[in-house]
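pinned: reference chain
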Amino acid sequence: MKIEITLIPKGAIINETKVSSVYLIGFIGDRIVAARNERGWDIPGGHLEEGEELVGGLRRETEEEAGISFVDAIPYATLSLPNGQKYMLFFVSDSCKLGNFIPKPDAFERDLLEVETLIERYYGDKDLLRDLIKKAKENIE
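pinned: its structure tokens
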């Protein structure tokens, strides 16, 4: 089964009850903030906690995993989970700032990577990540 990206029209209402996790493609210049965990290199993000708002969860996850903050983040795409009941929500930001990074069991390392370097190091579907990044760039240009 091929996972497909669904783009979110600007200003669309997001059904928060269907969001299982949030992720950030965070740019600083032409580079993307990435974190290395037990699976390998990835963009920061993760599951929402009970009752957590989308952007609040995104802020918590990006701080925990990559020691970054952001001013604005635009929701731009979803990936449906296999059961079709929940989906992953992707945000993009070009207002990221690096803060203090402390390695932890779920985030060993942080780096600012060129797009192709991140894709080479990514542990998952490289074509899917390339497409997510391409669509992220289109939303901030």
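why pinned: DSSP finds three helices and ten strands in the chain. The two ends are 31 Å apart (CA to CA).
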